[in-house]
Amino acid sequence: MAEDNVIYIGKKPTMNYVLAVVTQFSMDEGKHAAVVIKARGMSMNQAIDVAEIVKSRFVTDTEYDDIKIGTENLQNKEGKNKNVSFIEITLKKK
Amino acid sequence: MAEDNVIYIGKKPTMNYVLAVVTQFSMDEGKHAAVVIKARGMSMNQAIDVAEIVKSRFVTDTEYDDIKIGTENLQNKEGKNKNVSFIEITLKKK
């Protein structure tokens, strides 16, 4: 899957990401018709909220193709390694 | 699946729930050998952390059988309805 199909959840309000996912779906019409929502650590809650809002209110002809969770090893500001959980939610057109 | 196989994530430290899941697996030996980790709203992050820690460090012969996300309609203290996302992670012995 192309990288431009991925929406990374950061520190913006939930509705910003909902809009980003909806826009991605409308641009992809007839191409891949799938969007991956990715988040790490404290943003994982929000990734789930974004996916649920898109699916129930905006692009209702979608379903979850895959939900993956795992652990990534990251370096923090002090150069120390830290394990951080991540989630990847693949939402696709039915 | 029996209800006693479900661990609900609340406001305790992550390691309390890790221990609860590990204990559940050790009690279930030979019975169902699967534990469901459930969480709502802000606790969903922690549910993912708990699952990842159990799987990578404590009960390493497990895999994700199912990861489900969805929305529940709850009543808050003021009696208003509110949509809250949830996650259900099923971890089972390989």
Instruction: Please report the total strand number of chain A as a whole number.
Output: 4
- Main beta sheet strand tally, sense and closure of chain A: 4 strands, mixed
> What oligomeric assembly is this protein in?
homodimer
Largest interface: A-B, 19 and 19 residues
Mean of pLDDT of chain A: 91
Can you tell me the overall shape of chain A?
elongated
The residue fraction in helices of chain A comes out at 25-40%
Number of helices of chain A: 2
Give the strand content of chain A.
35-45%
In which order are the strands of the major sheet of chain A placed? 1-2-4-3
Rg for CA atoms of chain A: 14 Å
- SSE series of chain A: EHEHEE
Strand-pairing-aware structural class of chain A: alpha+beta
Spatial separation of the terminal alpha carbons of chain A: 17 Å
Give the uncertain stretches of chain A in residue-range form: none
Architecture overview:
The structure is a homodimer of 94-residue chains. Chain A is α+β, with helices and mostly antiparallel strands and 94 residues long. Chain A has a 4-stranded mixed β-sheet with strand order 1-2-4-3. In chain A, α1 crosses α2. Chain A is elongated, with a radius of gyration of 14 Å. The model of chain A has no long low-confidence stretch (mean pLDDT 91). The interface between A and B is medium-sized, with 19 and 19 residues.
